Amino acid sequence: MKQPSLIFLTGFSGSGKSTIGPLLANSLGFDFVDLDQEIEHAAGKSINRIFAEDGEAHFRELEATTLQQMTGKKELVVSLGGGVLQNDRSFSLIISTGTLVYLHSSPLVLAKRLSHKTDRPLMKGHHGERLSREEIEQKILALLEQREPRYKTAQITVETDNKRIGSTVEELTRKIERYIRRCEKQKIERNAKKRQK
Ligand SMILES: Nc1ncnc2c1ncn2[C@@H]1O[C@H](COP(=O)(O)OP(=O)(O)O)[C@@H](O)[C@H]1O
Ligand SMILES: O=C(O)C1=C[C@@H](OP(=O)(O)O)[C@@H](O)[C@H](O)C1
Ligand SMILES: [Mg+2]
């Protein structure tokens, strides 16, 4: 069953899901889980090592299995990894059990935020070498073309470019609280109609 207060944060790598997730959970008074951290904990190794030793397809399976543990939960913020929605099983699990929230960022800003990070295997070269900011931007553009259609199915979207993290958290809190209230009202109205029949 769908729980509007089960919040899944999506968006490209570097959009701020892992940074904003715990702050948002605190602001809403909800629990928090970072899907990548859960996977690393369960596997006993880093995402970099999972990609290098077991491959991306195995990582996508781990994402889908770990997500399953979150279905049915309420008042929880889950920071997803940027590629999880590409797996059909994960995508349908997410949209059928919670609220999808999209942190939108431009490729230029994402490349800037990611150019100094070493823990994003997909933002490296074929042999694990570091890429220039321009090369990272090209990779981002190619991946975004595939991923954006599913990011855009989110019920709530916020822009993260040129915005302080605190402002994004405030905007998200307002929008999510309003969305949950609306869902609750609709549920009450549906139940009242059922009773009248
Ligand atoms: N306005 C902003 N919104 C979100 N992240 C920002 C912003 N400005 C800088 N950052 C930085 O960008 C990075 C985002 O990384 P992270 O939170 O790990 O994103 P994700 O989990 O989506 O990959 C962090 O280092 C964060 O501090
Ligand atoms: O874009 C992706 O496919 C990935 C994004 C990462 O998470 P973030 O979006 O938190 O960086 C992590 O799940 C893994 O490196 C794969
Ligand atoms: Mg993250």
Describe the structure.
It is globular, with a radius of gyration of 18 Å. It has helices spanning 17-28, 35-43, 47-54, 56-68, 88-97, 107-114, 133-151, 165-196; strands at 6-10, 31-34, 76-79, 99-104, 156-159. It is an alpha/beta fold and 197 residues long. It is 56% helix and 12% strand. It has a 5-stranded parallel sheet with strand order 2-3-1-4-5. It is built from 8 helices and 5 strands. The longest helix is centred in the C-terminal third of the chain and has 32 residues, at 165-196. Helix 3 crosses helix 4 and helix 6 crosses helix 7 (133-151). The protein has a single domain, classed as Rossmann fold (3-Layer(aba) Sandwich), CATH 3.40.50. The protein binds adenosine-5'-diphosphate (ADP), shikimate-3-phosphate (S3P) and magnesium ion. The site of adenosine-5'-diphosphate (ADP) has 16 residues, from helix 1 and helix 8. Keywords: Amino-acid biosynthesis, Aromatic amino acid biosynthesis, ATP-binding, Coiled coil, Cytoplasm, Kinase, Magnesium, Metal-binding, Nucleotide-binding, Transferase. Its EC number is 2.7.1.71. Monomer. It catalyses: shikimate + ATP = 3-phosphoshikimate + ADP + H(+). Catalyzes the specific phosphorylation of the 3-hydroxyl group of shikimic acid using ATP as a cosubstrate.
